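S.,

Sequence below, as promised.
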Amino acid sequence: MASEGRSLRIALASPAENAWSETFIAAHIERLNKVELLLSGGVPPRNASHGGPLVRTTGPWSLYDRLAGRRFGGAPGLARHRLVERLKAFTPEVMLAEYGNMGAEIAASCERAEVPLVVHFHGFDAHRPDYIQRYGGYRELFRYASALVVVSRAMEAQLLAIGAPREKVIYNCYGIDVDRFTPGRPDLVPPHFLAVGRFAEKKAPHLTIAAFSKVVAARPEARLTMVGQGRLWEDCRQLVGELGLGASVDLCGVRKPEEIARLMHASRAFVQHSVVTPDNDHEGTPLAVLEAMASAVPVIATRHAGIPDVVDGERGLLCEERDVDAMAHHMVTLVDDPGLALRMGLAGRAYAEVAHRVEVQVGRLQHILERAARST
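The prediction came back faster than expected:
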């Protein structure tokens, strides 16, 4: 379903080889009106949906591109050079760069091709010092970009703190499909908890497990299902064994969206213990938190990044980062009080319906792109 905004010739650049692999980017590709050139496969991008790859890494022409790249300092320089040519040939009205580092890599190419640039920040790209330093504090990006879209108030404050122009920073959080994630009845299901996300350091799955071990000690009937994969999965599997939680915790791996929706309906609450990592990595606003709210499942999480923007005392229970005792206490509270879980879940669903419909949020992004296109 496309946004209701006017049809634009939009180019979209995403770092992933499969640009549909991240739900929020897939929503942009599918619902904006209209993404006609998709660039992907690295930062800067090396693949394009039209006109062939920007840099060929296989086949008989790959040797030619390796040699050609020497004129531009390697494959990234060649990709940026050819991006200019592709944009001039394709003539999009606006470029949407997913992630700040992608925007920084292609800003000069967009400027040379005279294509307005909108950059959508998502998390680490706004906070990690190594990225900020690599791109000179994003000064050139901030100068050229028409708009800088952020998904949390903390991210908004961060970009302003490092020098982004106030008039270019626009808060527009993610949306979810409230028809796919329909409301359940957390008060009528057993005291089962659900976590969904990559097993990555900033999501601290080991701290969720540590908190849950305290819940099981007090309420043995409690159960925890953790959906996802990632670098910390094996460490978490070992931790489950060491804590004697094999019968209480299910590390079930990756699941399809429809399976996650069913798991939401079988859960008393959604849990996520996000933290700032030693290298200052942050979340944006976790999409799974919004999906839980749309499912009328209360959220137990940390006061991290965009989570407090959407979860408050009416829609869930928050604790400080790394406070496993407080998280455990919140879980026990909802084990003991199914009625509270229902009231919080219904409040979350009502909020998601009003503030986080995907068609509304993508529609707002469409208008941001339209304004950028008109500004040239």
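The chain has two domains: 10-175+357-374, 192-355.

Coffee later?
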